[in-house]
UniProtKB/TrEMBL annotation:
Keyword match DNA-binding: yes
Location of the region described as Disordered in the Swiss-Prot/TrEMBL record: 317-337
Coiled coil: none
Species annotation: Saccharopolyspora mangrovi
Protein name according to UniProt: Lrp/AsnC ligand binding domain-containing protein
All residue ranges annotated as the HTH asnC-type domain in the record: 152-190
Pfam families found in the cross-reference section: AsnC_trans_reg, HTH_AsnC-type
Length: 337
């Protein structure tokens, strides 16, 4: 790694990374690729009563199955990414947990049907092609769709890596209750089959891309593959997916300014006229991104290891009372995250 960055000392690179990580400027994580483990992924939008969205967002950020929580402008107050073991479990989470939180006035759920791009493959383009090649881990990849059977151990290892993508095999083995050889073998199998992704994240403001926006719209089914592939190839787009419901296509991008939002919409309109953009949700604040709790500046302050909602967890939570939001105060309660 040191050579690819033009630095002689590997120790210097390690020290620099430790400084970045200790400040929450950058972090590493791991997660199952969408649908690879049989889980369903839902994009859920919420409307909240005035004065309650901060409390609702902070409450949901504590749920391991609620992978990301964003406070948005536009027609919705919150945008969530939720993972569940199956549709039954997702319904249980929505009805027994999410919809019981005081302050909600409306929820809308869309199921992700296919991800054309996701943030693990997104690049800042800070390095050249040769540097990227030098940093490639060299794991021999199997063809997409290769069959792999997940065990409880695999999920434990994935959850541990979601908290620290740089954990050693010795650390993972000790925490998961297995041997180093088994931990190495299972993680390598998941990486080879492309069902587990390692991902380095960064506070968006620090790289000059402080604005996150999500386009939602509709395109004819016959044209959806072409449009989605085209959108995925645009530099600002971190995630592009087809979903069920009123909007069948959405894309999330990182942009340098608010003025770049209409500019990007114009670009989409020119290049993909068959894609009718219905609305754009601009992110006011990311409370949680793929398991990481973030502060107002987008820096990581904590982690909630990701785990899909299960029927068993739904039964345990059925009788749990969700606390009501506190009375309005002069200051936001977000720092409690």
């Amino acid at each position: 790694m040191a050579a690819s960055l033009g630095v002689r000392s590997a120790d210097a690179v390690a020290r620099r990374w430790e400084r970045l990580a200790s400040r929450g400027d950058a972090w590493t994580t791991a997660y199952f690729n969408p649908h690879s483990g049989g889980d369903c992924v839902a994009l859920v939008t919420l409307r909240c009563r005035p004065g309650t969205k901060d409390h609702v967002a902070a409450t949901l950020a504590d749920d391991p199955c609620c992978l990301s929580v964003e406070i948005t402008t536009g027609s919705q107050d919150l945008l969530l990414t939720i993972a569940a073991e199956n549709l039954e479990s997702l319904n249980a989470y929505l009805s027994r947990r999410l919809e019981q939180i005081p302050g909600l006035t409306r929820t809308t759920t869309a199921l992700a049907t296919h991800f054309y791009s996701e943030a693990a493959n997104w690049r800042l383009h800070a390095l050249g092609a040769s540097a990227h090649a030098a940093l490639d881990p060299g794991v021999e990849r199997q063809q997409p769709g290769t069959s792999i059977t997940f065990s409880a151990l695999d999920r434990r290892l994935a959850r541990l890596l979601s908290a620290n993508g740089r954990a050693t095999y010795a650390e993972l083995a000790q925490e998961a209750g297995t041997s180093q050889a088994t931990a190495r073998r299972r993680i390598t199998a998941m990486l080879r089959s492309r069902v587990l992704s390692l991902r380095c994240e960064v506070a968006a403001q620090l790289v000059g891309l402080p604005v996150t926006a999500t386009l939602r719209g509709r395109v004819a089914a016959v044209d959806v593959d072409r449009v989605a592939a085209g959108l995925s190839g645009l530099a600002p787009v971190r995630m592009c997916a087809t979903v069920t419901g009123e909007h069948n296509l959405l894309a999330t991008m990182w942009l340098p300014s608010i003025s770049a939002v209409p500019q990007f919409e114009q670009l989409v309109a020119r290049n993909f006229p068959s894609f009718a953009v219905h609305d754009t949700l601009v992110n006011l604040r990311t409370v949680k991104r793929m398991g990481r709790l973030l502060d107002d500046s987008g820096r990581a302050t904590g982690v909630v290891p990701m785990r899909p909602w299960s029927a068993a967890r739904a039964r345990r939570t059925a009788l749990r009372k969700v606390p009501a939001p506190p009375p309005p105060q002069g200051e936001s309660t977000f720092n409690s995250c």
